[in-house]
User: Fold this.
Amino acid sequence: MKAYVSVFRLRLVNGLQYRSAALAGLATQFFWGFILIMVFEAFYSQALVTQPISLPQLITYVWLQQAFLSLIMLWFRDNELFQLITSGNIAYELCRPTGIYGFWYAKLLAQRLASAMLRCFPVILIAAFLPQPYRLSMPVDAVTALLFVITLILGLFIIISISMLIYISTFVTMSAAGSLLMFSVIGEFLAGMIIPVPLMPDWLQAIVNVLPFRLTADFPFRVYSGHISTSEALKIIPLQLLWLTVLVALGKYTMGKALRRVVVQGG
Amino acid sequence: MITVSGISKSFKVAKRTSGVRSAVKALFRREYTEVEALNDISFSIAPGEIVGYIGPNGAGKSTTIKVMSGILVPDQGTCSIMGYTPWLDRVAYVKNIGVVFGQRSQLWWDVPVIDSFELLRDIYDVPEEEYRSNLKLLTETLDLEDIIRTPVRQLSLGQRMRCEIAASLLHSPSILFLDEPTIGLDAVSKIAVRKFITRINKEKGVTVILTTHDMNDIEALAHRILLIGKGKLLFDGNLNTLRDQYVEDSAASIPTIEEIIVRMYKEYQIT
Assistant:
């Protein structure tokens, strides 16, 4: 356990060094946030029927997406791990008295948290004081806020167990590009990062709801905005736990298989 | 302490000749050749020995080290080290060994060396007292005092290698595997590393298995040599016996260790 905490800490310290990357990221996130909100604003003002999610709720949804980007994006990657696998430096990782799965999980978790710490507070703070209609609204009550935190954390664990599968696939394909692209394009769409899930047609929502991706972003954000009620949220949390268990079990199993037939590249 | 018996390992290597035509052909049908990296290797090593593991490039030296350190799973054969089978009891077993791969790095690139050391301390769960005394010994003998607070990316190869060796010994392993530890080192660092290996072997009784292409390393350190060529173990014995055996052949002059090895390679037809 000490090992995981320690690698987590070192990663965190490492990640906090990249200040200019964080600043550039902030600028990008505000740019994207405004563009998306303006598009939806225009769309809502022309709509003839009432939309399944209100505009203020949607704006909150967009700001939360931008603020917690590094906690929910599948393309957020650790190049070091890819290099470890493709260059054969994994040899050293295998000489350590820890399971590789847990060790890498801790690394990925730390990397995402380090990046999120630098980005989420400024975005939330600024977005909360923007003039209407751009303002990020606060959760209606403390229970909602608490549920949001819980679902976001569980979502983070789910996203990391999905990205572990990307890393494990690299053992077979030897290139990160393919699985990363596939997972991130499909996963991003299914998580409601491009079109918010409530605005999707019913048949698509039916598909999205059975997959784990929306549980990582769409679900916590809708809990925050009140679009998903407290009682409904409590029903979905067990589903998050179930997916987490399934994904971790799958990851551990495939990793064990991959390591048994690992070939250390280059001498 | 270490018993290796009948280890075999082969790799599948994709082969094609150069040129566009064969590249296109390889899109549809790829030809593989089986390369036997290790073929029925057996030996045993007693506690406290320093063994030099030599052979030409591509002979299977590193593969053996990787099998013995639990990284690779062999196709056949058994291996028992301190009662463990490395690839089956990996997590429990690796606590007892230290490994240095001369061509790779285990230190975190962007942070000072000491941060990597502290991470290793936590990974191996080394008690604080033991860690401090080990660190003290290592900084003194490997002359790390001035470089330990420098980020790894700013170290020279020789400085980094000394830190790599130190990193592998922080948890006081009883077996040390060194895969080309003196690669790219200058004379001063080489001698420092050799002295250090002798010292931990004498003082702490660490068993050392060392692969290298620098025969001076072997001469300075190892009393016993294992020669491997084309995946087969060809010679297992004392360095002096080897010398006597080959000195007789040439009455003209006393050959250097390098020449002896070349003769040996020729005799076994593995060059």
